[in-house]
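TODO from last week: model Transglycosylase SLT domain-containing protein.
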Amino acid sequence: MIKGGFGKGGIGTSVAAAALAAFCAAGTAQAAQCGNGPGGFEAWKRDFAEEARANGVSANAIAALMTTSYNTATISADRGQKSFRLSLDQFLAKRGGPTIVARGRALKRTHAALFASIEDRYGVPPGPLLAIWGMETGFGAVRGNQNTLSAVATLAYDCRRSAFFTDQLYAALKLVDRGIITASTRGSMHGELGHTQFLPKAILNYGTGGSLENASVALTSTANFLKGHGWRAGAGYQPGEANFGALQAWNAASVYQRALALLGRQIDGE
């Protein structure tokens, strides 16, 4: 998902999404003062907790928030996404494109019934789903070991993209209330979770139920995300084609988008 952004249907409904949008907007409008560096994090956290409480966040979620700490590794990762400036060929070489295609083709065969069911329901073929799975976590091999709430809280406090991650933090606190994550949940550097790396707000909006640590749930939720961003069954997904916009919604980096389209086509074109 978008690193600073990604977007499942069991958990999210239009009513719930509207309520969350209003809830998050209220939190953002009164946002505690952002900062640059760890020095102001604890004071920011206290201020944010007060605002969150005023916006209806439960005591249980506030308690989870108060366990968070400033994550310097998250800030380093956020500042260091240099691979997004590579050429497409360089990017694919760095990410192991041929390995993703080979493994993706094998998984498409061994899990044919699952992918057929997903395509029948959401209109998304196996290729782009397998490309996302391979690119995000090496098909589940590397899902991160950072404290999720600390990562999201750190980025909400950090001035670079405070508004975007304030919304993510409010969503994460809702996930705590729903028992989907806890204060000890661990994921990737920006707070992404599961096999295909969903940010908290995307879990609320597109999660299809169950744990994203389960590959089939993650893949189904990813297809729901793509459908929710305009995916049309049977249409193409290369640059300039109808479904490329849904891949663009998955990650903001142009080279990442083009890599997903190419890898997906190579997997689907077996």
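Done. The longest strand covers residues 146-147.
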